[in-house]
Amino acid sequence: MAQEKIIQINIEDEMRDSYLDYSMSVIVSRALPDVRDGLKPVHRRILYGMQELGLAYNRPYRKSARIVGDVLGKYHPHGDSAVYDSMVRMAQEFSLRYPLVDGQGNFGSIDGDGAAAMRYTEAKMKQITQYMLEDIDKDTVDFRPNFDDSLQEPTVLPSRIPNLLVNGTNGIAVGMATNIPPHNLREIIDALIAVIDEPATDAEDLLEIVKGPDFPTGGQIYGISGFREAYRSGRGKVIIRAKWEVEELKNGKEQIVITEIPYQVNKANVIEKIAALVRAKVLDGITDLRDESDKDGIRIVVELRKDVIPQVLMNGLFKHTQLQNTFGIIMLALVNGIPRVLNLREMLQHFVDYRHEVIVRRTEYELRKTEEQAHILEGLKIALDNLDEVISTIRGAADVNDAREQLMSRFELSEVQAKAILEMRLQKLTGLERDKVVSEYEEKLRLIGELKHILSERDERMKIMKDEFMAVREKFGDERRTEVLADSSDLDIEDLIAEEDMVITVSHSGYIKRTPLSDYHSQGRGGTGSRGAVAKDEDFIENLFVASTHDYMLFFTSFGRLYWLKVHALPEGGRTSRGRAIVNLLSCQPDEKVRAFLNVRDFPEDRYVVMATRKGTVKKTPLSAFGRPRVNGIIALNIRDDDDIIGVALTDGSNEIVLGTYEGKAIRFNERQIRPMGRTATGVRGVTLAGEDDRVVDMVVINREETNLLAVSEKGLGKRSLIEDYRITARGAKGVITLKTTEKTGRMVALKEVVDSDDIMIITSAGTLIRLRVADFRAISRNTQGVRLINLRDGDSISSIVRLAATEDSAVEDLEDLDVGDEETGAEEPSDS
């Protein structure tokens, strides 16, 4: 009898080690999803098993028992209920936002009814599931032995679907749990593309794209702070409420109709709870309760007494039933086999990195296979080019091995090529078949070049990834089901701020402020104006524009970057105040200066931003490209060191552009001559400058058919001309004379689009403001010096002008009540000479 070997082990150590082994097995192999495909092992094995059974979306259904048996016997020996229950959940429309299994038969209900036995139901994959398994046969993922080493199973699926976020998951492991809510596919793919386009995109940027969880049962999310915190830190909670409406009955009574309930809430239990509350007289005023739900959706009807206020009763239902429920978010997933709590940005980045790895491995596989095919075709081509000699060699050989050796020796072929020649059918000897071999060989060479280019260029791989994401978005994307409502704690400060127009001024030294437009009044042409911001330390006001307090202010800088703030966030000051340094409001870099400004309410895709630089370059970019700025700014224009931005404007894609130069010339061309470009592009030539000292001083976007151009010189002269005087030319020409520049007039400093109903605001380097009516000076010939607009003091000059539309004048005093020249300023009415 063999002697037994007994090892002494401390029971505490054994219990600890055994429990740790068990807990890690539960964490890695059962309860937690992988961050890459968003699946737990059982779900991954079910989908892979269905793939092996050929259960594509366009194939017949197969009995669930057959699918469960295959998965049990091959990959997941943990009991049939574990496999079948998991498959049932993947088929339920009310459990997954985008179901992965197409079930036929009774797969349960939102009332808590269980699915029929697996011998009765049938299933196959949904169409979207094909994108979870696409390219799995192209060495895109690693395989490992199954539980008995008889088969290989994938460690992860090469999913093109960001399944972890769009379908969510929940699981309880040992000492940790995960609970990730489902999301809208369109929003998540938009967020992925934002991460690809801007690697520096952070969680705050993504909050503008991902509007919150999107549950399959709809409902309403009450409050945004909870899920926003989860997107930042990986943990948070959301309050989900049922969606309801009030219907009036013929007898004057009202009834509440509940059409959507919170996620993972049992409808039958909710109805039973309401009935119990009525019986216990916790809720008073309900006269009837019934479930009218059908195949078209949920419809729970609660009839009320005449004296009951529906909102008050709903508040009671929210308090006492699961019609208001809390979803605790824990964004925990396995990253390289290690459980980690991730924020939204990290989850998206892990998926982008994984898809990049899949694309690289797929391309390497295709390149390898294509090179093998090209190698064989090259051998066939050699054989066809030397057909008589090849046939003679084969006929003279003693056997197949001898023929292979002679072919390899005589024509310097590989063994694979020689074998292919020996196996070549006689039909290949026809002229047409020979041409097909040559054509196929050339096609393989071209494909090899493309695949090598993809492997050598990361940008090309990222473009492929974006295209694949957009194809998924186009095919499977849908509208949100869950509405997001703000509670009192989510009120934006903007909701408490009245909307009004503001005059925004920026000084030469970089001080900014906002002042109500109503603080300014109109004067007659030739006045000396009223005092604006007081110039200090040789500073002066350089830019002035008008915007609403609820607008976004887009700041374009000398470095070609874009920053933005809400107008109401700018410091408010009186007309004589200096304002606040803009560097304290924006995260500008040293020596970076704000050059142009734009106010917008939103960022639609059918609007464009046209930019012009002092060196004559123009660029057009879709406004939607600027909809996700970051605190540290984003690139708006790739600008050269010796250039600078001078103008920015919004267009509809079909406007006309006019560029005015320092030497008094202007060019007019159609915006369609500028193709839309990305944010990082440089632009194209807009105008050819007259010399080294010449530069572009202003850009005008023509928005009205009957309009004039107002040209202003640095010495205070201005000229209003008809737009018809400026012929449309090709982009990049030298332009025509718009203002005769002399020593007396000075060079041109501004060019604006105006009509009779407009006012203009003139600002001088000394900080003086004057507001004039455009109707006070008539249109004259283009090739003239113009008339005096303002009397300048010695050493003063025009800094800039801004056009104020008539609609912005509601808060301004009636112009007829104002004197043209008042005793305070001593202004005199100038002549037109």
Brief digest:
The chain has 17 helices and 41 strands.
Features:
four-stranded mixed beta sheet; single chain; alpha+beta; Topoisomerase II, domain 5; 833 residues; 41 strands; four-stranded antiparallel beta sheet
Descriptive report:
The structure is a single chain. 28% of the residues lie in helices and 24% in strands. The chain has 833 residues and is an alpha+beta fold. It folds into four domains: 39-158, Topoisomerase II, domain 5, CATH 3.90.199.10; 243-322, Gyrase A, domain 2, CATH 3.30.1360.40; 349-475, Topoisomerase, domain 3, CATH 1.10.268.10; 494-816, Neuraminidase (6 Propeller). The strands form twelve sheets. Strands 14-9-8-17 form a four-stranded mixed sheet. The protein has a four-stranded antiparallel sheet with strand order 10-11-13-12, with helices on one face. The chain has a four-stranded antiparallel sheet with strand order 21-18-19-24, with no helix packed on it. A hairpin with a 2-residue loop joins β15 and β16 (338-341). It is flat, with a radius of gyration of 37 Å. Residues 533-538 and 805-833 have low confidence and may be disordered.
Shape: flat
What proportion strand?
Answer: 15-25%
Report, as a whole number of angstroms, the end-to-end distance.
Answer: 129 Å
Oligomer: single chain
On the 0 to 100 scale, the average pLDDT is 85
Q: Show unreliable segments.
A: 533-538, 805-833
The domain count comes to 4
CATH topology of the largest domain: Neuraminidase
Q: What is the makeup of the main sheet? A: 4 strands, mixed
Could you say what the CATH architecture of the largest domain is?
Answer: 6 Propeller
How much helical structure, as a percent, in the residues? 25-40%
Number of separate strands? 41
Helical segment count: 17
Rg calculated over all Cα atoms: 37 Å
The computed structural class is: alpha+beta
Q: Going across the biggest sheet, name each strand in turn.
A: 14-9-8-17
CATH superfamily of the largest domain: DNA gyrase/topoisomerase IV, subunit A, C-terminal
